[in-house]
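Sequence of Isochorismatase family protein (Pseudomonas spelaei).
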Amino acid sequence: MEVRAGAALVIIDQQKGIHHPKLGRRNNPHAEERMRALLAHWRRNGWPVIHVQHLSHSPESVFWPEQSGVEFQDAFVPRAGERLIQKRVPDAFCSTELETSLRDADIGQLVLVGVATNNSVESTARTAGNLGFETWVIEDACYTFDKADFFGELRSAETVHAMSLGNLHGEYATVISSGQLLA
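Predicted 3D structure, token representation.
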């Protein structure tokens, strides 16, 4: 198995609000650099790029539509010809045209990057795998934040990230590094 030319790069929730201090400590400080390298590779090759934007229902969210946090980070603003998917829940397939647009374009392979690994990335990857898309998650081009588990024990972003990738790999997706993909 390998990532083929023409696979769609799906960039999840790279919006200004994701850098808000209230979200806490994160892992993978170089994730955006890896995402930019992948995006440049996709653009150079003319392959499909899909930008996913979260529009929250909650005014307290960093992605509330009526404030600047909902806007894309400068490096991830969609260009002409690149698809924009706006979602209201973590899963980019839920109540959006993502599946239809992929099937209409005859795209069967997806490469997922973005934030948060255990939230929007994981939920989107699970659905993609369940729908039969060949799904790849780029582990060093995703990140998440420290999070308390169900029992209240604080888990590091690194642990949360690793568990999420463990949940996905081999069942819903194949997890690799950006270096493996770009080599």
